[in-house]
Amino acid sequence: MIGAEDVAVRPVVPVVDDVDTGGFFEAAARGELAVRHCGGCGTDLHLPRECCPHCGELSRTWRTVEPRATLYSWTVVEHQVHPAHPTPYTVVLVELDDAPTVRLLGHLPGRPPLTVGQPMVVEFEDVEGVRLPQWRPEEESDRA
Amino acid sequence: MPEDTSRWTPGATSIVGVGATDFSRSSGRSPLTLAVQATRAALADAGVDPRDVDGIVRCDMDLVSGPALADSLGARDLTYWGEAGPGGSGPAAMVAQAAAAVSAGLASTVVVFRALNGRSGNRYGLVGERGAVGGDGSYDEFFLPFGMQTAGQFFAVVARRYAHEHGMSVDKLSEGLASIALAGRAHANNNPAAQFHDRTMTREDYFASRMLSDPLRLFDYCLETDGACAVVVTSTERARDLAGGAVPIVSAAQGTGPGVQPGLMFPALLRPSTPSWPSAATAPTLFGRAGVSAADIDVAQVYDCFTITTLIQLEDYGFVPRGQAAHLGEADLTLGGRLPINTSGGHLSEAYIHGMNHVVEGVRQMRGTSTNQVTGAELCLVTSAPPPGASALILGVDR
Ligand SMILES: [Zn+2]
């Protein structure tokens, strides 16, 4: 177990400049949600990589999608493993409304009430200069 | 599905010896020492001189290399070494690779081993302070920063989705998960080598155990173990003349199925269906090569890093229809039940040797020497875990 007293509590930030996945974090930095999209056959490719398993094309094209999703599943983490993520917290797995084959994760503090299939929206979080698309339940005001 | 054009010969090779170290929380020994001890035990069981070992297959996550183990055994010449994985999806595939090496004439006496200090050494599921995470094909950048950092958290998300897709409450699912935990524990209570040999468990104990990653509790999780297991593979013809005798490898298979995703474990959350594993693709290959079906299996050692892992595999291998594994009781899964599983206690209650202790116990069942012997058992399934891929064996009785 990593004790909080043993290490400086630093957030867990992603590599944002990987040749295959960097486009996702570049878009997030602009406040957009983007998915890897094959120019050859129109398939969304998540996890992002250059080679399309459907048509064989190598490309690095991305498309911007609506930052809306539906809840696929989740877990409430009660046992802490990293000091940057105090428990309890909830990890949500969502399916994008605009790209239903694409699932993304999000972090929510605590134990919010959730139901599979409920609408979720993006809320960008800035962590040490990196912008992460997080997901929270849609509220009344989001539909305005 | 295209015709399987591979030419597997059922029972051409056999496991002739098995060995294990003690299972503990702190071995005080290096993984190399553990590997040597388990391997020497397996070779003694087989009746093979360690100098005659000419092949070794390791798990890709092992700290011990094939040549290093051969050197420590005093082997004269290693003519074949290989590895399979990732991790727990390896052991059955490692045995398959040994069988392939023997059948192809690359080696005659192949050791398959797994050694780890899983408790006192490198424990799994700890995200260290290592700067930015992900990249280079790991795809960790889509998981770790969002708090998805351990296998337990991963399997918890899968478990909740399983309950949703089958229209059951998570509490109902937990009843089924409890049955798997209880079956393993009951078997461990009869196995003096098991880490939980002296610790009984009731259904109430299961539900009272601490929630770690909802809906998974402490007793849905496997043990963390220091120890090693090894087996010796040779031709069935030769095994018959050795002290250990032949436990024929009736079938062996690996599988991914389509759309398996790159990366290691977490990317399995992005597959079209999460409550089903590559084991569903492995099953028809495995049974097809043996010419048997799930109904012919007498006893099964089903990889159980978590209870949900086992539950889903019981459906993937066709023992029960989709959505029905959660309705099994522990009586179905223990001695005298419809399918006794994990008769050593498995990962949940014997030890976590990353799938290798399941192979050893499978051999014991076919020899008739298990501490939870299934009377008259002639076919034993041994599975090695999804999610990155799956592998499995069917072991038999030489006649
Ligand atoms: Zn394409």
Report on the structure:
The complex is a heterodimer of chains A (144) and B (399). Chain A folds into 2 domains: 15-65, no CATH class; 66-144, OB fold (Dihydrolipoamide Acetyltransferase, E2P). Chain A is 6% helix and 35% strand. Chain A contains 1 helix and 7 strands. In chain A, the strands form 2 sheets. Chain A has a 5-stranded antiparallel β-sheet, with helices on one face. In chain A, strands 1-2 form a two-stranded antiparallel ribbon. The longest helix of chain A has 8 residues, at 22-29. Chain A is globular. Chain A starts with 21 loop residues before the first helix and ends in a 7-residue tail after the last strand. Chain B has one domain: Thiolase/Chalcone synthase (Peroxisomal Thiolase, Chain A, domain 1, 3-Layer(aba) Sandwich), CATH 3.40.47.10. Chain B has helices at residues 31-46, 66-73, 91-103, 151-165, 170-188, 203-208, 236-239, 279-290, 307-316, 330-333, 346-349, 356-367, and strands at residues 13-20, 55-59, 80-84, 110-117, 211-214, 216-217, 226-235, 247-255, 299-301, 379-384, 390-396. In chain B, helix 2 (66-73) links the parallel strand 2 and strand 3. In chain B, helix 1 (31-46) crosses helix 2. At the A-B interface, strand 3, strand 4, strand 5 and strand 7 of A face helix 4 and strand 5 of B. Zinc ion (ZN) is lined by residues 38, 40-41, 43, 52, 54-55, 57 of chain A.
Which stretches of chain B are poorly predicted, pLDDT < 50 over at least 5 residues? Answer: none
Give the largest interface pair and sizes. Answer: A-B, 47 and 48 residues
In what range is the share of β-strand residues of chain A? 25-35%
Task: Name the overall outline of chain B.
Answer: globular
Query: What is the chains' assembly state?
Result: heterodimer
Q: Roughly what fraction of the amino acids of chain B lie in strands? A: 15-25%
* Estimated helix fraction of chain A: under 10%
Largest β-sheet summary of chain A: 5 strands, antiparallel
Mean pLDDT of chain B: 96
* Sheet/helix structural class of chain A: mainly beta
Q: Looking at CATH, which topology of chain B would you report?
A: Peroxisomal Thiolase, Chain A, domain 1
Which architecture name of chain B does CATH use?
A: 3-Layer(aba) Sandwich
Domain Thiolase C-terminal (chain B): 281-384
Protein name (chain B): Lipid-transfer protein
GO molecular function (chain B): acyltransferase activity, transferring groups other than amino-acyl groups
Organism (chain B): Nocardioides caeni
